[in-house]
Amino acid sequence: MAGGSTLKGGRGKVKAVEPISAVDPQYVPDVPSASEIERKAQEWRKLNSKRYDTKRRMGFAEQEKSDMPPEHLRKIIKDHGDMSARKYRHDKRVYLGALKYVPHAVLKLLENMPMPWEQVREVPVLYHVTGAITFVNEIP
After folding, report:
1. Which of 49, 64, 112, 136 has the fewest other C-beta atoms within 10 Å?
2. pLDDT in tens, 34-46
3. Rounded Cα–Cα distance for residues 109 and 138 (Å)
4. DSSP letter string over 49-113?
5. Residue 140 has pLDDT above 70, yes or no
6. What's the CA gap between 133 and 98, in Å, rounded?
7. 6 burial via Cβ count (<10 Å: 0-12, 13-18, 19+)
8. Is the pTM of the predicted complex or chain greater than 0.85?
């Protein structure tokens, strides 16, 4: 590949690029100094601290969501039990989308099943606002 060959592509000709080491055997890549590495690391930390920091809106941080009482989830499931009502016609698509997560929801339910000596086991749950899917939010 002395002068660079041409490759035929779908839209004309594309010039192949040769690596620098093949063209100039005396080429030595620049090694960044310790101060440059430290500067880049500092920039990286600064960028990621902004990306993964607590989200602030209008000057204050949003507080963590509190757990809802069990009655709230029971009401959602009871209200959405009959999907034939006009009120819920747009939620049918959400229910169909939630079907692919049902095996995982069943697995989490089986993982957290109460042991024979336990009468009741209360666990935190994670649920969709339409009641389409509910997960047990605990690792046993």
Report:
1. 64
2. 999 999 999 998 8
3. 10
4. HHHHSPPEETTEEPPPPPPPPHHHHHHHHHHTS-TTSGGGTTHHHHHHHHGGGHHHHHHHHHHTP
5. yes
6. 6
7. exposed
8. no
